[in-house]
Design goal:
The complex is a heterodimer. By secondary structure, chain A is of the alpha+beta class. Chain A has helices at residues 3-16, 22-33, 37-54, 64-84, 107-156, and strands at 162-168, 177-183, 188-194, 203-210, 213-220, 228-232, 243-249, 263-268. Chain A has an 8-stranded antiparallel sheet, with helices on one face. Chain B contains 8 helices and no strands. At the A-B interface, helix 1, helix 3, helix 4 and strand 1 of A face helix 2, helix 3, helix 4, helix 5 and helix 6 of B.
Chain lengths: 271, 185
Amino acid sequence: MSESHEAYLELCAGQALDALEPADRERLEAHLARGCPECEAALANFGDAVVAMAATSPSAMPRPAVKEKLFAQVNKEAQGREQARLPEMPRPTRPVRSAPWALVWGLTAFSLLFLTLNFLNWHRGNTLLKERDDALAEVARMTKDLDDAKVFTAVFEAPELKVAPLLPTPESNQKQRATGYFDPATGNAVIRFSNMHKPQAGDFELWALHGPKPTSLGLVQVDANGNAVMKLRGVTDPAHLSAFAVSLEPAGGSKSAGPSGPVVLVGTIGG
Amino acid sequence: MIDQEDDLRCMERIADGQSQALEELYDRYAPLVFSVVRKILRHEEDAEEALQDTWLQLWRKPNAYDPKRGSVAAWLVTVGRSRALDLYRSRASRQRVQEATPGDASAPSENPSLSAEERELRDRLARGWQHLEPHHRQVLELAFWGGLSQSEIADRMGSPLGTVKSWMRQGMQRLSDNFQKEEWR
């Protein structure tokens, strides 16, 4: 075995532990792309070592509620996928016109029948056209939803993904939490909230902080369980966004340029 | 225990949009991945979030897994660990907390659902870990639990980078040999 190939096997160990410097990772990826069964086998073996290390951690079980919440989300996405697989829409067709029943019908009767059938055809055609228009509108709505899903899924896969855990300020409810996922390249962000229980007469408002300057990102619409997800497109000046914060405001949000009520959550953009 | 063939069939079904297959992998590996992220994060809710993110990534991008590069179990552990380290770094940065390296968690309560056989196997793997040379163990700990790169480990240990790379490979090889001997497959 050549000395240089030994070096690749060493890189495989680092790769399995995600401990390579970027240059080494690129070197190994280029080598693997050319095809190397020996390095692939080494990676598989080192994967076993990773599982062995994982198994040395004290065993623990996630709460059943974690699985319930996860699969509620998964099933929701699965339904969305199913709806995206639309059947081919029925196209309005001109019904086959019936032939006159018999010559025994008089010309008048034939004319009446002809007119009646044409009216029915016209009416059915219109109904199908309306159904088609409704279906096209539904397709457009789902296309937009799909586009949203792509845009916000891309946030989680962004190479420069920033994660900002928002933690409660000392005076606020210590159970409430949020996590911001932010792609500085696009300015798109997803913020997930939990345990946000607001008073009846008030609203939570999300803020972006560029240094000390706050910019409102809108009200947080929490559900009955205190959960919410906000999806934001193109947050202004993403390169200088330093933190997210949430304040408790009068119903409808702050009337001023910044928070008017107490800040209840805050988190800096990490890397 | 790992059944890679069965796991691969699950991956195919997940790629086909079958959430039941995702659930099968969750039931099989969530405890293992959760143990890892919990040890790194030392925070129950953050650990749960990292676990959920791992399975959502699996659901949304099953093709990111390359079977030529290792088992499904190893891939899930790697994804979960990576997500946990990201969360840990962000949280430490926000809180300005310097608490040594991640992974110093106090032992959580033992998982009561482990079978006697699995518990025994874990004990044997732990003994295999303890039998590594101290320098091998230190390199692997800093990489896996601390999230340090090979260069950072070399700096931390005051050892040449080439030596660290060799130790990493030797330690991983010994762990892998021990793992296969213990018949987790």
